[in-house]
């Protein structure tokens, strides 16, 4: 198995334990029971991991347990109900509460891993996961949707890496699935404000298909968010060339023009202010120089007047009219 396939397999393995049935008693720090499942004639709780059906702490614990295993677990509020008050079946959980769970793993269903599937099963599993990811995205669970898409991409990577097991039509389907995974993952990145991630994923698509309008559109969106308007304009231009009637691209082009106008306005204001400061500083310096020159001229005039007065004094006759020759 090559290294890329090994990495993909690790991602797939993290998603094969999906369906759990657990019994548990949940208590607060003072011993108050706020929830109980699988006891007193009640059925165990059944849930799918990584879909926010239970608190994160219980989700993580379940993924590590074996069938029939029993555990006492302490869960900090970050992995419990957080900093909000939560009303449960038997009591209200205060905000920032530490929780104590007694958990028993009653059962779980293990999904097949790709190397246990034939080609048709792999394609069917990919279709199911794709629908699951789309539903999560529509419900605003972008991080979970992104995780499902990572699983799908890893599955597709395994399929692509296999030697000759897929016929041409199946290979085309798998490659199309990879492109779809990259595009959907880019959409999740945009929602999660991971703009660099969106750019990288769209670039992967464009390496395969340089005219893919969705990839150009989403990469342009990401460029606009990081204020790289020149690259955004290039992508929008290519998208318009590929699909001149695309309404979404036209709307994005309109938004880009507004951003460019605002950017130009800011730039003009910035340079105007900078020019005004330079002009003001120059004017102040000129005035200062003029004042200094004026003062210097006055000093020179005074000095000249004093010299003239001395010369006049030295050439004037003595007051008594007697001139004394020195011997």
Automatic annotation (TrEMBL):
Residues covered by region (Disordered): 305-327
Protein name: peptidylprolyl isomerase
Listed GO MF terms: peptidyl-prolyl cis-trans isomerase activity
TPR repeat start-end pairs: 213-246
Catalyses which reaction(s): [protein]-peptidylproline (omega=180) = [protein]-peptidylproline (omega=0)
Keyword Repeat part of the UniProt annotation: yes
Keywords on record: Isomerase, Repeat, Rotamase, Signal, TPR repeat
Its EC number(s): 5.2.1.8
Family listed: Belongs to the FKBP-type PPIase family.
Signal peptide extent: 1-25
Species classification: Eukaryota, Viridiplantae, Streptophyta, Embryophyta, Tracheophyta
Domain PPIase FKBP-type: residue ranges: 17-109
């Amino acid at each position: 198995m090559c290294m890329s396939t090994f990495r993909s397999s690790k991602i797939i393995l993290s998603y094969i334990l999906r369906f759990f049935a657990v019994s548990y008693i949940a208590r607060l720090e003072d011993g108050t029971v706020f929830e109980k499942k699988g006891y007193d004639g009640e059925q165990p709780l059944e849930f799918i991991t990584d879909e926010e059906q239970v608190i994160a702490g219980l989700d993580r614990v379940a993924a590590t347990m074996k069938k029939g295993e029993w555990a006492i677990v302490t869960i900090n509020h970050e992995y419990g109900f957080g900093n909000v008050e939560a009303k449960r079946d038997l009591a209200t959980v205060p905000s920032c509460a530490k929780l104590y769970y007694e958990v028993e793993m009653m059962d779980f269903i293990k999904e097949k891993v790709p190397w246990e599937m034939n080609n048709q099963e792999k394609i069917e599993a990919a279709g199911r996961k794709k629908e699951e990811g789309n539903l999560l995205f529509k419900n605003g669970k972008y991080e979970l949707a992104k995780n499902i898409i990572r699983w799908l991409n890893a599955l597709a990577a395994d399929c692509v890496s296999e030697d000759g097991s897929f016929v041409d039509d199946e290979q085309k389907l798998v490659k199309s699935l990879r492109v779809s995974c990259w595009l959907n993952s880019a959409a999740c990145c945009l929602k999660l404000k991971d703009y660099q991630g969106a750019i990288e994923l769209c670039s992967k698509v464009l390496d395969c298909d340089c005219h893919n309008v969705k990839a150009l559109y989403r990469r342009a969106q990401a460029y606009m968010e990081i204020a790289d308007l020149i690259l955004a304009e290039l992508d929008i231009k290519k998208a318009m060339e590929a699909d001149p009637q695309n309404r979404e691209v036209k709307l994005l082009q309109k938004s880009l023009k507004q951003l460019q106008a605002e950017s130009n306005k800011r730039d003009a204001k910035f340079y105007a202010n900078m020019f005004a400061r330079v002009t003001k500083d120059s004017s102040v310096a000129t005035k200062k120089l003029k004042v200094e020159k004026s003062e210097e001229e006055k000093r020179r005039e005074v000095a000249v007047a004093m010299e003239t007065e001395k010369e006049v004094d030295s050439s004037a006759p003595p007051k008594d009219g007697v001139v004394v020759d020195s011997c």
